[in-house]
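Posting this for the archive.
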Amino acid sequence: MLVRVAPSRLGVLPTTPNPRGPRMKILKIVPERCTGCLRCELACSYVQTGTFQPAKSVIRVSPFEGHTSYAPYTCTQCAEGWCMTACPVGAITISPVGAKVVLDDQCVGCKLCTIACPYGTIFYSPETQKAFKCNLCGGDPACATACPTQAILYEEAETADWLGSFAAERAERRFAVLGAANGGGH
């Protein structure tokens, strides 16, 4: 499973020039290497919440075949961006590292993004009444750093910019609204 996002139209530059297309850092999951140690869940929950609470992690480890094999899974930062397109208030945007992130100050807690995600990797917090998901830890994913077997890697890969024009249009509308709210008008 690869994370594929290249929001180059939002000012994010590819990390390495490539004549075949943009390259960005992505999370690469290698399930065969996972031992089910759950270090990724602990590291993620600590970075996201400041506490070791795997239930609040945005990466999960699934056991298979009677706990004889495991596979970590998290938001793939998919190019289609179903969560982002489903959000009626534009509270999900693309960060400079290519992660789709929930803007807490704009999220109304409607949960449409959680329904729209076909991977089940965007969550709802009853405490905050907001959606939350993987934000790639701002470009230094704790899950990849914590994984002792390299079942989770953060590496460069080719990406497809299928969402660039939509994201650019949404960003322009968002910044126009913010400018008007701050007295900029246009």
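The longest strand covers residues 23-29. The helical segments are 39-49, 82-86, 112-116, 142-146, 164-181.
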